[in-house]
Amino acid sequence: MRILLTGASGFIGTYLARELSSSGHDVVGVDYVDGDLASPDVARHLISVNYPDLVVHLAAKVGRLFGEENPGTTIGANAIATTYVARVCGQENRRLVYVSTSEAFGDQGRHNVTERDPDALPHNLYGLSKRWGEEAARLYAPKGLQILRLSMPYGPGLPAGRGRAAVVTFLWQAHRRKPITVHRNGHRCLCWIGDLIAGIRMIIEDSGAGIWTVGRNDNETPMLEVAQIACKLAGCPFDLITEIDPPVKQTLIKRLNVNRLSALGWQPRIGLRTGMSKTYEAVKLYDEDGMPPSGWGKMIGGKPE
After folding, report:
1. How far apart are CA 214 and CA 229, in angstroms?
2. What are the structural domains of the chain?
3. pLDDT tens for residues 164-198?
4. Model confidence, pTM
C-alpha cells in the first residue's frame, strides 16, 4: 500500500514509518514543515500530490497538561486539522486511519473497558479534542475508517520532563538526580513502543473498521514501582521519590480490553523492566531540558524490537 503518514517525525511516527516501510509498504511521511494541517488547503494538497491508498493521521498536539495550557493550539492541531484531513479523505475516497488516544474512553474507574462500551467524558481538553477528531472522521470519512486508541507507549525518543510521559520522565529525573513526583494510587499498563507499533501495523493490514484499543492490559503496575525501577536502573536512592495526591481530574487506573487486537495474533514481547532498561540507555544522552539528541531516530536503527 502507498501510505501517507502525518506526524511522521514525531515519537510514534518515527517508529511507525520504519515499521510500515520494512513490511513492504510505500510510506510518504509528512510533518509540520510540509504545511499546517489546520489550514484548509494543506491536506488536499498533500493527498493530491502523493496519491495514497491510505492516510494514517497521526499528527497532533499531545499531552494533558499542555492541552490545558494551550487550548487554542490543542483544538487547532487535533480537532480542526483532523476535520480537514477527514473531509478530504472522504471526498477523494481515501481510507483513513485516525490515531487517537485511550483518553477518549474517559475515566471508567476500575471497569475493564472494551471498544463497545459507552465513553465517559474525558478529564482534559486533550482527550476531548482527540474525541472530536474521532467524530469528525466518522462524519467525513466513514468508509473503512479505523480509529486507534493508543494507551501508554514508552521507549527511546519520547521527550522527558514536565507534562511528559511518566516512564521516560522518571528515568531522566533519576539519571540527573532530580526529584521524582508520583501520584498516589496511580496504576498503568505500559507498552513498549515496538510492541505497540507492531499492533498498529497489524490493524492497518487487517483493515477491520471501527475502534481498536492498542496497548497492554496484562501488566498493571503501580506508578510508585515504576519510579523505583527507574531509580534502580540509574543507581540512585529511592528517597528522590515523593508521593503526592493526584489532581482532582486525573485517571488513576486504566483497564482496557485488548481482545480485538489479540485476535489478530498480537502479543507483547518486551517486559517493563527490559523496556525501561532499553529506554534508559537512550535517556542517558538526553539534554538538560529532557529532549533526545537531534537525529535520535537514526540512532535507533533498524526495526524496533
Report:
1. 24
2. 2-300 (3.40.50.720)
3. 999 999 999 999 999 999 999 999 999 999 999 99
4. 0.94
